[in-house]
Amino acid sequence: MKYKRILLKLSGESLMGAQGYGIDQDRLKSYARQIKDAAASGVEIGIVIGGGNIFRGVAGAAKGFDRVKGDQMGMLATVINSLALSSALEAKGQPAVVLTAVPMFPIGEPYSKWKAIEAMKQGKVAIMSCGTGSPFFTTDTGSALRAIETEADVMLKGTRVDGIYTADPEKDPTATKFDEISYDEVISRGLKVMDLTATALCKENNMPVYVFDMDTEGNLAKMLAGEPIGTTVHP
């Protein structure tokens, strides 16, 4: 087994599937199947999921919302997605626990590093919501923080693209894919892998990141088996 413990970052936007808003049940069930199979292989799994399918704080601020309140609304969106994912996992027989960076018992248990690690060691999927719990930080930064805190071997960034390219492959047909790239090169090239805060946090703490296409079912198992289907970002 390549990794003992992973932190999987899932995109809220990807949960929309083809419907353009909210939670697509087929996509949710696909994620649940892949995560359950990974847990069954013995990998300890922590998850952070975004909330962009419901509300994005930055977008809300651009429309006139107070930025702090907008980010708090975004945090609540991540809780909705976390509850949906935990429900889908439990429906398939995979135990899961929702931890919230902002206290909101009984919806979720208050997050702590030790609670998350204990849950993972027990074979539960630890879903960590509310980002960092503070405004002005993205869920990418929340993922980086949780990966480092819970001593994950790698942070997996599940996206709809199969890795990191020299340019946006959806806009530039000449874009070429990296098999691996350093954090310094990501920053110097201005590549939009994660926001700068998340990138710097991973770089400073020697946390490798693997970017891959999570929306193609079976890719999580391939990645965990060591197949080169994405891009590694290394310190």
What does this protein structure show overall?
- There is one protein chain.
- It contains 8 helices and 11 strands.
- The chain has helices at 25-40, 57-62, 67-91, 113-121, 139-149, 183-189, 196-204, 219-224; strands at residues 5-10, 44-49, 96-100, 109-110, 125-129, 154-159, 164-165, 177-178, 180-182, 209-213, 231-234.
- Helix content is 38%, strand content 20%.
- It has a 9-stranded mixed β-sheet, sandwiched between helices. Strands 7-8 form a two-stranded antiparallel sheet.
- It is α/β, with parallel strands linked by helices and 235 residues long.
**Poorly predicted runs:** none
Note the beta-strand portion.
15-25%
Order of SSEs: EHEHHEEHEHEEEEHHEHE
Main sheet properties: 9 strands, mixed
Structural class: alpha/beta
| Helical percentage | 25-40%
Count of strand segments: 11
What is the 3D shape?
A: globular
Gap between N and C termini: 22 Å
Cα Rg: 17 Å
Question: How many helices does DSSP assign?
Answer: 8
In order across it, which strands form the biggest sheet? Answer: 4-3-5-2-1-6-10-11-9
What is the mean predicted local confidence, pLDDT? 94
